[in-house]
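User: Run a structure prediction on this.
Assistant: Running it now.
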Amino acid sequence: VQLQASGGGLVQAGGSLRLSCAASRSIFSMYVMGWYRQAPGKQRELVATITSLGTTKYADSVKGRFTISRDNGKNTVYLQMSNLKPEDTAVYYCNAERLPTDYWGQGTQVTVSS
């Protein structure tokens, strides 16, 4: 499975961005999809995940601001980010997991200016 993330960029605090992650294989629907992020000098952390049935989970720091969704027909997962804060600045990575296997995308930079 290859994952291609896109949609990152530079935005002012309070702004919005939508990240997309396209998967290369039609079995996408069987995987738990997730977004993780890594800020400079920090460990990679979970942002949000969504199961094949649409059950979602969010980090406390993004609840109410970020929304994860998926389109199984397009093999794509999205992360809608609103009310962005400077502390959201990080490289965002897409992940596809079906234990014991998982796959990572190449990451997309999100920078939020104050």
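The two ends are 37 Å apart (CA to CA).
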